[in-house]
Amino acid sequence: MSKSHNPSINPSLIAHSLLPENQETPIHFIKSDIIDPKLFYRRNHFSYPMLTTSSYWLSVNGLVEKPRLFTLQEMLTMPSKTIKVVLECSGDKRYLFVPKAFGDQWQKGAISQGYWKGVPLRTFLDLAGIKAGAKEVVVEGYDYGKRTDSDRVYTFSRSLPLEKALHPDTIIGYEYNNQPIPFKHGYPLRLIVPQWYAMASVKWIKQISIIDSEFKGPFQSTDYVYYPNKENEAGSFPVTTINVNSTIQKPLDMNVLNTGKHFISGISWTGKGVISKVEVSTDGGKSWSEANIITQNKGSYEWSSWVFDWSVMEKGEYTIMSKATDSYGRSQPSIPFWNQKGYGYNAVDKIKVKIE
């Protein structure tokens, strides 16, 4: 393979669709835990919105004492915080489900992370004054269009329960990695909801509304819902917290390797607590050994990088597996939780290699 076409040297996004744009990060060729905006995965339901930031206002309304309008300039003067957050599409690894689930067949790269700077959502809610009886906070984006199941035009809107909206690390972000958020990732304002799948992190924020009921928008009540039964909607429940998960980055699936020493490396992440253990199997799950966690996400919302030293002297085919456990005792299952729309895949990761 020539140098100019080697994806490990010149990685690029992996396209699933271009209108709307849905492309994943080349996660197996990412060596940094800070993802460059050009390689940050892109997930859209509609075309990119048309925005003019010169007249941009953020509206906070609904069940509040005093509806407010905030300018970008005002936001920059408010107390801010910077948090390192992993964002994972809830459809990440969908292509691995058996039987197949409908939707974009994301491989293992619908996940990225970096530093987000912004103002806690709570700050805006406090300034507007939340009235008694408030239950949810609806965040509406500027992106809109028709869904495949309706002729109506919808904006992308999601809600958070009041408790999650008031969490100090739920922020209205305006910078990514010390630069204004790139337009394709939500400029000028993007909601960042740590520990929840990224559909909650609404881009191109148009307005924030406090309501006293359960939000029923289609991206809340139809999409981003686990439907565990093939034939009906019985037992359904909403997609929220990220499942504990891991991905083997090196070696690559179906690599041919020589006998000797090899490094098996990858990343693990969770939506509850922190990663406490990563185990690796080189014999298809018959035996497991602990990997060395290099960067541990102690008290933060980032992934943990890990490595395992493997000495192999016998030629043949090997199945390598990784299994992460978090501080709440959640471990990756051997069989994924199948659901109609293919959300939340987090079964033990596995690849195959051949030793010659």
TrEMBL record:
Pfam family, one: Mo-co_dimer
Cofactor(s) demanded: Mo-molybdopterin
Keywords: Metal-binding, Molybdenum, Oxidoreductase
Every Moybdenum cofactor oxidoreductase dimerisation domain range: 240-354
Keyword Iron found: no
Oxidoreductase molybdopterin-binding domain ranges (all copies): 45-218
PANTHER family from the UniProt entry: SULFITE OXIDASE, MITOCHONDRIAL, SULFITE REDUCTASE
Name this protein carries in UniProt: Sulfite oxidase
Organism, as annotated: Neobacillus pocheonensis
